[in-house]
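Ligand-bound model needed. calcium ion.
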Amino acid sequence: MTRIAIIEDEPKIAELIRDYLDREGFESTLMADGAVAMDVLRKETFDVIILDLMLPGRDGMSVCREFRTFSTTPVIMLTARVEEVDRLLGLELGADDYVIKPFSVRELVARVRAQLRRTGLWQNGSAAQPVAQSAALELDAGRMEVRVGNQSEVLTPVEFRLLAALSHRPGQILTRAQLLDALYLDHRVVNDRTVDSHIKNLRRKLAELVPDRECVFSVYGLGYRFEL
Ligand code: CA
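Prediction:
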């Protein structure tokens, strides 16, 4: 069952979204308070989070920022403020998409589906389950860790997605555009350099686990390739 968290304090909007998602066969959990929602997000696993910006208890930005320290689950922000959009999608906050209020629920549901499709690019199964990548390397989405043998390194959500996308297709070249797709649905606020700088950090961490050889190769003019 695909589980969606709806964090929205206007009951009419929240219920409308829930009714649509019900009809699509999703299971929704409604939360109206940012602080309460944060507690739930720490305990339960969802497939997509729909998060309103203006909330009682704790605002959506702060919820998103904290959520990103421990989860890679896609977050779609609801906002009435067009001028906030860059910050929402920026690396600092780490939301995956946004919808400007007032919005069509049909459009929002399409965005939810797009996130679920995209998640399939870097993740198998539920975010809470460890994902075995290859005999040599294991990615654990619950702990946001990569393990080789009994050594592990903690990754950022972006590094985790990058490594998951690359290691799902060992030996295959992924272009920067494909990697950006795995990282962000919306490319407007990021560029190719973003991928390069995250790859650099990822390599540094992988070198701690596998000091004797390279795992992420640059393919000049094309992109990156993973092999271990
Ligand atoms: Ca609100």
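The longest helix spans residues 105-122.
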